[in-house]
């Protein structure tokens, strides 16, 4: 049977997605932003089934669950429980979508179906279909095929049923008979991803109209199937989700890029793990499809609404008045670090902290662009996990090579769902002469670090940056992350050691300053927690503050329980999975935990230990998950600059005091909002004001 801790981790993830759904339901959130939260909810579910659900299904099919009595439930029962939860969440999301669409109509934004098209809209829809949609359609008639061709993972399909006009001959006699025995043709139409999902129709009488591509295709079914004589035609949406695990080829004759490329291609043939269908689909159509596709009882079968792939709502077109959106506030500069001047000169004098998206990611790009042009810079080393679709980071590195720099890039080809993009960038950089490293056998490289070497007065000086998030211009606008720019020789010497480990990974280096996974992070964190325990036992103030994406490693959780029992005060801000239960007498009564879900995605990893009045502060790429501590290369970097340390402590406290978008973790897992008698404080808005005030103070 599956261990209860494993079960709690999977269900905790679904609890996180419930918090996202709460934002979509929240009437104080602008309407189009609510739609986009529905898109995030849907996208999260897709990834959950591709990865987490698929893993449980593999366990079930392998027959591993049920052989050892570890406590808990069988894998098959967990699959059923997950499906039940998701069906409930999907039902809730459909009600929210209907409510949002109703409210949008009050703002003269109308999302219309194929049955609501006006005469004046007909010509536009016809021309749009013939010019853009029809040439892109893949239409598969199923009746004469022995089996359904492999459907694309997470692609949306219209399942079409045509009831033909001709009656079926019976004993050589053609007669009028029950319609149920008339010939049926079943067809699948793939919704093309090359066309925007939302088609903006011409405005009429001051009202705006949008039609989903699905409905635009439905409206034109007669044009697609005009060669058939049918008496009725219906179309309902279906979607299949496949296991996204990469099975890496062991062929030694292939390069790593070839192996990953092959594995990504094989992913399209991964086992199905979820089948979603329009709950209004005809029973005979549903039965036909499921039999033809071989959908079985271990797959999650979800009755859904009219539209799937609601992740597309993340890119809902920008229409209407400003009150339908969050206020756009331009990212701020870092006080004292001037973009128009030399960043390296500024960093040579002191460390600087960047906190995106409150401050501009342009500093990261400028750092690399300057390094690419500076004749004194000789080498650049950087880790890459995820890049933007159009990456100025990549172009800066290529520019550096063209200017004679030695550029080394550790690129993680196994970054889930970014494999194809990273392979493309790897091939491009390799062609330009970048020295590529493809990780460490058995370990993903998840750390975010860069170090450059510059010749100054006959010696080599290092500059660099370490971050909690990816070097990605796109996500930097919506993910909150810390980046430390530094010229500290001790820290950067150790960052350089990490790059040495990438190339000679049989040799494990020692570190005095950095906490590096998989060799030292767990032990170091255990020691830091123990120090707080020892202080509490001596009557000295002891406190631990953590900001994480996920907390699911039970050895670390047990150590936090031990600290709580010793009197250590613990504050946790955990965006996603939190397997720790706070507030339990005798175990965790000194632990408080919240989650913040708001306009931006909370992404930093931050560790703060009171350390008898001299706080130890780390920014990190590592969550407190087993994979981050034991199965990945991660870097946690200490903050030594007192001004930056003060800034991080203050920004943590702003987040901690959130009583608008904070949810509390409790034993009931209700995702209740934090309610107190203090003035409303929405931390993400307050943090922008915090940095704005810093600039205003300097300019006064």
From TrEMBL:
Coiled coil: none annotated. ATP binds at residues 44, 479, 575, 603. Its EC number is 2.7.4.1. The active site is at residue 446. CDD domains: PLDc_EcPPK1_C2_like. An intermediate of this reaction is the autophosphorylated ppk in which a phosphate is covalently linked to a histidine residue through a N-P bond. Residues 598-628 form the PLD phosphodiesterase domain. It comes from the Bacteria. PROSITE patterns: PLD. The keyword Metal-binding applies. Mg(2+) binds at residues 386, 416. GO terms for molecular function: polyphosphate kinase activity. It catalyses: [phosphate](n) + ATP = [phosphate](n+1) + ADP. Its cofactor is Mg(2+). InterPro entries: PLipase_D/transphosphatidylase, PP_kinase, PP_kinase_C_1, PP_kinase_middle, PP_kinase_middle_dom_sf, PPK_C_dom2, PPK_N_dom, PPK_N_dom_sf. It holds the Pfam family PP_kinase_C_1. Keywords: ATP-binding, Kinase, Magnesium, Metal-binding, Nucleotide-binding, Phosphoprotein, Transferase. Catalyzes the reversible transfer of the terminal phosphate of ATP to form a long-chain polyphosphate (polyP). PANTHER family: POLYPHOSPHATE KINASE (PTHR30218). Belongs to the polyphosphate kinase 1 (PPK1) family. This is Polyphosphate kinase.
């Amino acid at each position: 049977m599956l261990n209860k801790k494993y079960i709690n981790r999977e269900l905790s993830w679904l609890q996180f997605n419930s918090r996202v759904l709460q934002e979509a339901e929240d009437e104080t959130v602008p309407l189009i932003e609510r739609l986009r939260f529905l898109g995030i909810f849907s996208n999260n579910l897709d990834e959950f089934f591709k990865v987490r659900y698929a893993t449980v299904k593999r366990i079930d099919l392998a027959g591993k669950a049920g052989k050892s009595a570890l406590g808990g439930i069988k894998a098959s029962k967990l699959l059923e429980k997950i499906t039940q939860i998701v069906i409930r969440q999907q039902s809730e999301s459909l009600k929210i979508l209907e409510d949002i669409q109703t409210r949008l109509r009050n703002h003269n934004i109308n999302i219309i179906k194929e049955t609501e098209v006006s005469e004046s809209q007909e010509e536009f829809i016809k021309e749009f279909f013939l010019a853009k949609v029809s040439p892109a359609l893949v239409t598969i008639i199923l009746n004469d095929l022995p089996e359904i061709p492999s459907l694309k993972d997470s692609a949306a399909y219209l399942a079409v049923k045509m009831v033909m006009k001709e009656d079926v001959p019976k004993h050589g006699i053609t007669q009028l008979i029950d319609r149920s025995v008339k010939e049926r043709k079943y067809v699948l139409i793939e919704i093309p991803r090359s066309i925007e999902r939302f088609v903006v129709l011409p405005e009429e009488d001051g009202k705006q109209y949008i039609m989903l591509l699905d409905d635009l295709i439905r409206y034109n079914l007669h044009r697609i199937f005009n060669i058939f004589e049918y008496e009725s035609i219906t179309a309902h949406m279906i979607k299949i989700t496949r296991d996204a695990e990469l099975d890496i080829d062991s062929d030694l004759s292939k390069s790593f890029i070839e192996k990953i490329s092959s594995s990504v291609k094989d992913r399209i043939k991964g086992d199905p793990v979820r089948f979603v269908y329009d709950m209004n689909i005809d029973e005979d159509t549903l039965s036909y499809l499921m039999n033809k596709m071989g959908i079985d009882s271990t797959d999650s079968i979800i009755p859904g609404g009219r539209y799937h792939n609601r992740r597309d709502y993340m890119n809902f077109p920008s229409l209407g008045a400003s009150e339908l959106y969050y206020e756009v506030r331009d990212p701020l500069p870092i006080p004292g670090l001037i973009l128009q001047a030399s960043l390296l000169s500024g960093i040579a004098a002191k460390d600087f902290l960047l906190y995106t998206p409150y401050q501009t990611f342009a500093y990261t790009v400028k750092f690399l662009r300057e390094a690419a042009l500076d004749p004194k810079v000789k080498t650049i080393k950087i880790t890459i996990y995820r890049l933007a679709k159009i990456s100025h980071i990549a172009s800066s590195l290529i520019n550096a090579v063209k200017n004679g720099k030695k550029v080394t890039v550790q690129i993680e080809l196994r970054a889930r769902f970014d494999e194809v993009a990273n392979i493309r960038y790897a091939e491009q950089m390799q062609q330009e002469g970048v020295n590529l490293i493809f990780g460490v056998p058995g370990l993903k490289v998840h750390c975010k670090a860069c170090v450059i070497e510059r010749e100054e007065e006959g010696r080599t000086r290092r500059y660099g940056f370490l971050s909690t998030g990816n070097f990605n211009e796109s996500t930097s606008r919506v993910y909150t992350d810390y980046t430390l720019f530094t010229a500290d020789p001790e820290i950067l010497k150790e960052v350089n050691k990490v790059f040495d480990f990438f190339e000679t990974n049989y040799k494990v280096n020692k570190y005095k300053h950095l906490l590096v996974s998989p060799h030292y992070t767990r032990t170091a964190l255990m020691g830091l927690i123990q120090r707080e325990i020892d202080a509490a036992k001596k009557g000295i103030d002891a406190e631990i503050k953590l900001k994480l994406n996920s907390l699911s490693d039970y050895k670390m959780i047990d150590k936090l329980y031990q600290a709580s029992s010793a009197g250590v005060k613990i504050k946790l801000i955990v965006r996603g999975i939190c397997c720790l239960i706070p507030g339990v007498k005798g175990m965790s009564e000194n632990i408080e935990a919240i989650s913040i879900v708001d306009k931006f995605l909370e992404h930093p990893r931050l560790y703060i230990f009171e350390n008898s009045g001299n706080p130890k502060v780390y920014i990190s790429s590592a969550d407190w998950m087993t994979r981050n501590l034991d199965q990945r290369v991660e870097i946690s970097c200490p903050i030594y600059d007192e001004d930056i340390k003060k800034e991080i402590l203050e920004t943590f406290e702003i987040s901690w005091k959130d009583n608008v978008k904070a949810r509390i973790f409790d034993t009931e897992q209700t995702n209740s909002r934090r309610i107190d008698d203090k003035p409303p404080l929405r931390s993400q808005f307050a943090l922008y004001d915090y940095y704005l005030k810093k600039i205003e103070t300097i300019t006064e």
